[in-house]
Amino acid sequence: MKILASVRIALRALRVNRLRSALTMLGIIIGVAAVIAMVAVGSGATARIAEQIQSIGSNVIIILSGSVTSGGIRLGHGSVLTLTEEDAKAIALECPAVVAASPSVRGTAQVVFGNNNWSTVIQGTAPEYLEIRDYRVVSGRPFTWQDVDGATKVALVGQTVVENLFGGTDPIGQIVRIKKVPFTVLGVLSPKGQSPWGQDQDDIIILPISTAKKKVLGVSQANARAVGAIMVQARGPMMMKEAAAQIVALLRQRHRLQPGQDDDFNVRNLSEVFAAQEDSARVMSILLGAIASVSLIVGGIGIMNIMLVSVTERTREIGLRLAVGARTRDILTQFLVEAVTLSLIGGLIGITIGLLASFLISYLAKWSTMISGGAILLAFAFSALVGVFFGYYPARKAAFLDPIEALRYE
């Protein structure tokens, strides 16, 4: 009951000075709102990176054709096709840490269906590519090794191609022309969204690699079996480095590279790149939250300042209460309740504004935000602790006033 009485007295005192109480809470309101909004932005960035990583596929390693030296001149990465389809088969068979490997060639072409046309990416690859990249065929069916061996003119189309080329028409079984060559649409790929480097992964047509080489993209005059890249899937996230090491050793052996000679290929472990991006986003989220938390400290200092002013203004009231029998604990509780009430009300208003700010940031700036329940609870609890911490000194000063001196105060 005494606590409830202290709460009533505290609320009455705050109502008497409404403007001052509102200005005092402003620091807490801004601090809590800033913490929630900034953590939401940081969490949204981290979640977005995680989605992009998932869209690439699980445990993916990319092998690209490397540089070669010709006549003393070093050519850049990918300038010469140094990888072959046999390299991909050897990696899948001879590297224990590898689940699957798929050779790949890539280019762009104009695709025509009826009166519509669309320029898109043409990817020639093997059936394992869909599993490695975690592509699902949402309608129709994927192509098989029989299609690869027979250079069948079939195609799998991405969602962006479907929207821009077919409109409302069911694409399955339709005939499209790629560089004037007719292809039958065999299936439609599941949506992927943007890649971590900003590329639309749905703006793609996937063909059997043999068909892509012979009918659309052409073959290397030096080596008809050459490919631009090999996509590899490791057996698990913990085996990525081991798989990369096995691939490097195998390819150096197959390409007859001498010790000390540069690799003529480039192995990229995407997990390491994405892990670095995730760590950066996480650190940024923590940094934003820490910076926003400074506002809570400033708000707490404001509460301490106003509570000291309140103690000075109410010195005679405190002296009178002490004279008629109020205990030190009662006065301490009263002023602590006032400070905590200011903080909690400010915290609740701050939570509301923080949620609204997160929504507006997502809507207006088109940034991905993710509201964190933990961040809301932490900000609210921290605001209460700020009230206790910064309200204790003024409350203690009031509680230990000499009743006689307090009654004489003018």
List the helices and strands and how they pair.
Elements: H1 2-16, H2 18-56, E1 60-65, E2 69-70, E3 73-74, E4 83-84, H3 85-94, E5 98-113, E6 116-125, H4 128-132, E7 137-140, H5 145-149, E8 154-157, H6 159-166, E9 175-178, E10 181-189, E11 204-208, H7 209-217, E12 226-227, E13 229-234, H8 240-254, E14 265-269, H9 270-313, H10 315-323, H11 328-364, H12 373-399, H13 403-408
**Biggest sheet overview:** 6 strands, mixed, barrel
From the spread of the alpha carbons, the general shape counts as elongated
SS field, number of helical segments: 13
| Spatial order of strands in the largest sheet | 5-6-11-8-10-9
Please give the alpha-carbon distance between the first and last residues.
Answer: 32 Å
In angstroms, what is the radius of gyration? 34 Å
Helix fraction, binned, reads 55-70%
Count the domains. Answer: 2
Strand fraction: 15-25%
Strand pairing plus helix content: what structural class? alpha+beta
Q: Could you list the spans in which at least 5 consecutive residues all have pLDDT below 50?
A: 70-74
Q: On the 0-100 scale, what is the average pLDDT?
A: 81
Q: Which H/E pattern describes the elements?
A: HHEEEEHEEHEHEHEEEHEEHEHHHHH
Number of strands: 14
Textual characterization of the structure:
The radius of gyration is 34 Å and the shape is elongated. The chain is an alpha+beta fold and 410 residues long. The strands form 3 sheets. It has a 6-stranded mixed beta barrel. The chain has a two-stranded antiparallel sheet with strand order 2-3. 56% of the residues lie in helices and 19% in strands. The chain contains 13 helices and 14 strands. The protein has 2 domains: 2-52 and 276-408, no CATH class; 81-263, no CATH class.
